Amino acid sequence: MIDKIKESIAEAEAFEAHTKEEIEAFRIKYLGKKGVLNAYFAEFKNVPNEQKKAFGQVINQLKTTAEEKVNTLKEVLESKEEVKGIYGDLSRPGEPIAIGARHPISLVKNQIIDIFSRIGFNVSEGPEIEDDWHNFTALNLPEYHPARDMQDTFFIQTDPDILLRTHTSSVQVRYMENNQPPIRTISPGRVYRNEAISSRSHCFFHQVEGLYIDKDVSFADLKQTLQYFTTEMFGKSKIRLRPSYFPFTEPSAEVDVYWGLETEIDHRITKGTGWLEIMGCGMVDPNVLENCGIDSKIYSGFAFGMGIDRIAMLLHQIGDIRLLSENDVRFLEQFKSAL
Ligand code: PHE
């Protein structure tokens, strides 16, 4: 019997383990309730008295050997884990770093800025929360002017003077108040209108305002600038100007660019005509110049305001305007390759 226990001790000493599970199995095998050690203890009563001392000694030896083995194996394993924790597995392949993508609205906005900066326009900005003067009154839309209804406005409930700007034309006013001609500026930004949300329109969208004020600026200058822009932007130069009305420009026009009808999305966004309405424009009304402190007898100019969202939808073939504001990474990731 004593020899058998000695064998167990040798076996326990020789044991090696590489995982927590192996160590635990070892502990249960030797030190568990139904383990080797308890089995030997159960034999104790059958051992003749004169051998009891020697028997007890070897059993105790087995116990300490098994316990020490468990402890040292655990320590070795833990220290290995620590080393791994700091340096990781140095032979593992590198983790790919996820690259972000620019939002299609930013892509198109940057393109527009780039095209106009080449002909001397700078970039200006104004607040999205505006007052009545900059959004309406200075733009020839006094209180009770019916054209205020052209744009359903979000007002701040407690103060009817404060609103979310309905167009970037408010930035024109701010720019003219603070700068004298010659003025050549474009103002990109978000605008808000209280409209039903659908696949074609949203209660907020994006515009780029353009303003050119100098001596002897004519409608021909406006038309030529638009021609330059559409050719650079779309690679297409077929545009049409439809007479229109804006209180702050006279004469006024709406500009369409011929896009074509190649895809289903082209059909949807151009309502089956192939023509995309990209902006409103006109010669700045002398009243507006005067409201902003510019002498309308010396200076004249043109202004335009274009929507970015629909242009982005056509250029990137996006079928639903709501995708632009849902922040779905599966959508956004698709613009990784664009600059
Ligand atoms: N502000 C007009 C709109 O949002 C567009 C526009 C800008 C028209 C400048 C003429 C001149 O519809």
TrEMBL record:
It is found in: Cytoplasm. GO terms for cellular component: cytoplasm. The keyword Protease does not apply. Residues 108-334 form the Aminoacyl-transfer RNA synthetases class-II family profile domain. Its EC number is 6.1.1.20. The keyword Oxidoreductase does not apply. Mg(2+) binds at residue 250. InterPro entries: aa-tRNA-synth_II, aa-tRNA-synth_II/BPL/LPL, Phe-tRNA-synth_IIc_asu, Phe-tRNA_ligase_II_N, Phe_tRNA_ligase_alpha1_bac, Phenylalanyl-tRNA_Synthase, tRNA-bd_arm. Its cofactor is Mg(2+). GO terms for biological process: phenylalanyl-tRNA aminoacylation. It catalyses: tRNA(Phe) + L-phenylalanine + ATP = L-phenylalanyl-tRNA(Phe) + AMP + diphosphate + H(+). Transmembrane segments: none annotated. Binds 2 magnesium ions per tetramer. Belongs to the class-II aminoacyl-tRNA synthetase family. Phe-tRNA synthetase alpha subunit type 1 subfamily. This is Phenylalanine--tRNA ligase alpha subunit.
